Amino acid sequence: MKKIIAQILILVTAFTFAQTRTISGVIKDKETKLPIESVSISVENSSIGTISNEEGKFRITLPTPNAKIFFSHVYYNSISIVASNDSDEVEVFLDVQIFELEEVVVNKFPGKVLLKMAVDASKTKLEKALLLNTYYREFINVDGKFTSFADGLVDYYVKRKSGASDLQVKQSRVFDLKDATANERQQAIMSVNLNNIQDAIEYGYNFKGINSILKSEDYDFYAQTKKMADGSSIDIVSIEPKEGIEEEMIFAGTVVFDSKTKLILDVDLAFSPEHKKFNELHNLLIAKVKFNNYARKAKYKIDGDKYVLVYYQSSANVYIKFGNKIDNTFESTCDLTVLNYKEGEFKLDKESKFKGTSLFMNGNKYTEEFWKKYDVILLSDKEEKLLKSLQQ
Q: In sequence order, what are the residues at sequence separation of 6 or more whose Cβ sits closer than 8 angstroms to the Cβ of residue 208?
């Protein structure tokens, strides 16, 4: 009997796997026909999701062939489709969101107070233990030339309240220009990494960057309310440097959140272009460093009574002078998307913990071509060419 049951389970598993289907496509503005970046794509009754890249392209694996797919963007009307059985390629057009009200400055609370309320509400909702299955990737550019790429399947065992995590790298692949004959200077250059894989989830969950801005006296905050046709509304807080501020590393950008729940939906912050000229070269022990640019993006999803981070991006551009070994400008961009999540206390044994700061440290360790299925944030055509050049 046990043998029969086991065989049935194998057949059911095989059948279920066979029913999965991968859909690729492009999302465009219905009027302009231009691609739309950062559209959230999700699947009905599933934690599966992704976003469109800078060319509006996406790819997603459906748990069942005829699953319903949802497309949403802050500035466009949301739609849902059931992919045709005739093709695994789709072209999706979104209408610009028509708001019932024009942009309205919120008078009840100042923008700064509203933003603080949103951060507090979001942090409270996110203060729970989670297991996040993610796809993580990173590009590194040295003096305008791409030199390294790494991606992998990374599990984050998120601790309650702190947002800190234990990491397990399930699979990874690495491409770089460093080889066994690289000299000491080349090895030093290739060892520089600006993004810490350990921090990706923590920064997405604790809103440290926004809190730093809220504590500063260098910013103005402008709040607008957008009311949707269905009666719901969102608040958009624009963060701008105060007039006359001549400080370095000053940010500008927007934070979008649901007006009713105050839960943050979208964060887009970067160094203010007008203030980059004030960024200075700093002496840090035996090195000199200048931060040319720094940016962070994050997207969150309200899933019924659940609230979860679905996408995080961090990018930095830094000039480093270190003796005779390093005199270069480094740019690093990491993308992380959540493939699945489970609430609850999950423990990771010590032997499985990844303690490195970069996925590059894990090297090539994979048992399948995981990127073909889980690389849900498609590379742009330019990035594809860069990756192929590193593979040669």
A: 202
